UniProtKB/TrEMBL annotation:
Molecular-function GO terms, alphabetical: inorganic triphosphate phosphatase activity; metal ion binding
Gene3D superfamilies: Hypothetical Protein Pfu-838710-001
Organism: Zooshikella ganghwensis
Protein name as it appears in the record: CYTH domain-containing protein
PROSITE patterns: CYTH (PS51707)
SUPFAM superfamilies per UniProt: CYTH-like phosphatases
Domain CYTH span(s) in chain numbering: 2-205
SMART domains listed in its UniProt record: CYTH
């Protein structure tokens, strides 16, 4: 298992161009990692059992044409900072591989779910532009700018986010870098993941509450 520690910030569309030009992203401490288009499909049961357990199960088509399957389990998110369990597997096709979801990582309340019970309930499609920043402390933090959309049923919502993911170092390093960015660009901490925003969109469209 990997523990994903990231900080999510919302950015206004009018600030995106200025964000890309920040000195912090264009000096010797920053390595530009390029752009890639990411298409994600999130799976759940008809009555959203995974969502109720705060579990996200998705397949992702990466910019190099490969599919990945990711499982994220219940975590905590405060002021945009989240820590969650995360597992990832390469796939040979776009099809979900249920055999990866073994009992030691698949939450107990979901143990009775069968492959046929799972279907795609929402999708995201966004361009990710990323930089790897190395701090004086030795911490390594990936900064990703995500621009695209969430699709849930007939509804859509834009994605405009900056994500900081801790690759090496301390949580204080992550918070410190976020504070530095916010000195120059208006960024707002966001505790909702793309999947959680998609569920809200989906359930509003269905006339139901996300957690009922």
């Amino acid at each position: 298992m990997g523990a994903e520690t990231e900080l999510k910030l919302a950015i206004s569309g009018k600030d995106v161009a200025e964000f890309r030009q920040l000195p912090l992203l264009n000096n010797d401490t920053s390595q530009y990692e390029g752009k890639q288009q990411l298409v994600n499909h999130y799976y759940d049961t008809t009555n959203q059992q995974l969502h109720k357990q705060r579990v996200a199960l998705r397949t992702r088509l990466t910019g190099d044409g490969h599919w990945l399957q990711t499982l994220k389990t219940r975590g905590n998110s405060v002021d945009g900072l989240s820590v969650r369990g995360e597992w990832e597997w390469p796939l040979r096709s776009s099809e979900l591989d249920f055999t990866c979801l073994t009992t030691d990582i698949w939450p107990e309340p979901l143990q009775r779910i069968k492959p046929a019970d799972l279907k795609v309930v929402l999708s995201t499609n966004f361009e990710r532009e990323s930089w790897l920043v190395t701090l004086a402390s030795g911490a390594a933090i990936e900064i990703a700018l995500d621009i695209g959309s969430i699709v849930a049923g007939d509804a859509q919502q834009p994605i405009r986010e900056v994500e900081l993911e801790l690759k090496q170092g301390l949580v204080d390093d992550l918070k410190g870098l976020a504070d530095e960015l916010m000195k120059f660009i208006h960024l707002v901490p966001c505790d909702l993941s793309k999947a959680e925003r998609g569920y809200l969109l989906l359930n509003i469209g269905n006339g139901s509450e996300a957690n009922e």
